[in-house]
């Protein structure tokens, strides 16, 4: 393993149990009936553990959208052609009357005042230079995972470290809540393959319709993933090997974002299924990563619930999202910020002088 990557993985510390105990005790004393804030109370306690303080104060939200293409698209597993990937990158960067970016993630991020960073880590096209594009291409798309390993281990580690470095740059700019997002036609296929291998479940159990494929295309997608798994090119005991064998450049990049954020005691909002596949690899590499992962919603992909169950994480909402880009993560950010504010800004009964304090 690359020494820089090894240090990054080892830098992630467990949740701060003392901060969590103090946060839980404070929640029980705030000016409300016990449990009245429902799941926000549990979120606030987890945030205390991640940030290492009973009164966490997250302030900077940044979405990092990684774009990459997939050789497996040649197998006919997607409803859209690969040319959509570079076109969507251009949309993320476009100047519009509302502001930078014309995609859903841009519109949603503007409502929150969140920053959106866009990285080309593996688009199968030569993208024009743009002041808001981070040109970090490792290679032009992955290989066809049905027939061979999608990436070499060196390419995989390079993509992870590229994500870590961009996350570090975002954190230097004030981000302490990071939302990994992705754009890559066909990327639910590697995400399903990763999930099937790491969870040791049949491909069919975790393979969904992605962008909305027909029944025939879904069946073809399942068969392609089954063939990829049957190659026996990786072992779950070697998570990086599984990622190289069955993953994607943007998936590896998002893993790097997660590792860097967790190592700095910042939190990660998980958007959906593709992000979940990166998280599975990350937690297999370093179980402490789980403490810093906050899933937004359970998306429409059939395998997402299995990922969350394996990670022991509860989604914040169920909106049937299946877009990617980090859109669900942006929608969840105000919930996390609000949960932290209850610990930090609400008064206890004693502080407020309210009679009948518990």
TrEMBL record:
<comment type="function">
    <text>Catalyzes the synthesis of alpha-ribazole-5'-phosphate from nicotinate mononucleotide (NAMN) and 5,6-dimethylbenzimidazole (DMB).</text>
</comment>
<dbReference type="InterPro" id="IPR036087">
    <property type="entry name" value="Nict_dMeBzImd_PRibTrfase_sf"/>
</dbReference>
<dbReference type="GO" id="GO:0008939">
    <property type="term" value="F:nicotinate-nucleotide-dimethylbenzimidazole phosphoribosyltransferase activity"/>
</dbReference>
<comment type="similarity">
    <text>Belongs to the CobT family.</text>
</comment>
<keyword id="KW-0169">Cobalamin biosynthesis</keyword>
<comment type="pathway">
    <text>Nucleoside biosynthesis; alpha-ribazole biosynthesis; alpha-ribazole from 5,6-dimethylbenzimidazole: step 1/2.</text>
</comment>
<dbReference type="Pfam" id="PF02277">
    <property type="entry name" value="DBI_PRT"/>
</dbReference>
<protein>
    <recommendedName>
        <fullName>Nicotinate-nucleotide--dimethylbenzimidazole phosphoribosyltransferase</fullName>
        <ecNumber>2.4.2.21</ecNumber>
    </recommendedName>
</protein>
<keyword id="KW-0328">Glycosyltransferase</keyword>
<dbReference type="InterPro" id="IPR017846">
    <property type="entry name" value="Nict_dMeBzImd_PRibTrfase_bact"/>
</dbReference>
<dbReference type="InterPro" id="IPR003200">
    <property type="entry name" value="Nict_dMeBzImd_PRibTrfase"/>
</dbReference>
<dbReference type="InterPro" id="IPR023195">
    <property type="entry name" value="Nict_dMeBzImd_PRibTrfase_N"/>
</dbReference>
<keyword id="KW-0808">Transferase</keyword>
<feature type="active site" description="Proton acceptor">
    <location>
        <position position="325"/>
    </location>
</feature>
<dbReference type="GO" id="GO:0009236">
    <property type="term" value="P:cobalamin biosynthetic process"/>
</dbReference>
């Amino acid at each position: 393993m690359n020494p820089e990557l090894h240090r990054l993985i080892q830098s992630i510390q467990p949740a701060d149990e003392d901060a969590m105990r103090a946060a839980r005790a404070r929640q029980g004393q705030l000016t409300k009936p016990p449990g009245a804030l429902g799941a926000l109370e549990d979120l606030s306690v987890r945030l205390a553990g991640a940030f290492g303080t009973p009164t966490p104060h997250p302030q900077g939200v940044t979405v990092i959208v990684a774009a990459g293409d997939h050789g497996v698209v040649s197998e006919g597993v997607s409803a859209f052609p690969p040319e959509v990937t570079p076109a969507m990158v251009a949309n993320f960067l476009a100047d519009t009357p509302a502001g930078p970016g014309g995609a859903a993630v841009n519109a949603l991020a503007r409502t929150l005042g969140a920053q959106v960073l866009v990285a080309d880590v593996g688009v199968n096209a030569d993208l024009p230079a743009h002041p808001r594009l981070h040109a970090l291409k490792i290679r032009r798309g992955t290989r066809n995972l049905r027939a061979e390993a999608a990436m070499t281990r060196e390419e995989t580690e390079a993509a992870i470290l590229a994500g870590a470095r961009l996350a570090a740059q975002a954190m230097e700019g004030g981000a302490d809540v990071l939302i990994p997002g992705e754009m890559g036609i066909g990327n639910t296929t590697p995400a399903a393959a990763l999930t099937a291998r790491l969870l040791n479940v049949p491909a069919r159990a975790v393979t969904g319709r992605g962008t909305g494929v027909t029944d025939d295309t879904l069946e073809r997608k399942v068969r392609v993933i089954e063939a990829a798994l049957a190659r026996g090119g990786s072992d779950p005991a070697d998570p990086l090997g599984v990622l190289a064998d069955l993953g994607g450049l943007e998936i590896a990049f998002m893993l790097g974002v997660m590792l860097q954020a967790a190592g700095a005691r910042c939190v990660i909002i998980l958007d959906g299924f593709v992000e979940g596949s990166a998280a599975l690899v990350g937690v297999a590499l370093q179980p402490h990563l789980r403490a810093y992962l906050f899933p937004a919603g359970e998306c429409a992909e059939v395998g997402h619930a299995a990922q969350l169950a394996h990670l022991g994480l509860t989604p914040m909402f169920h909106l049937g999202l299946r877009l990617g880009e980090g859109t669900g993560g942006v929608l969840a950010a105000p919930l996390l910020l609000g949960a932290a504010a209850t610990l930090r800004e609400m008064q206890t009964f004693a502080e407020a002088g309210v009679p009948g304090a518990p």
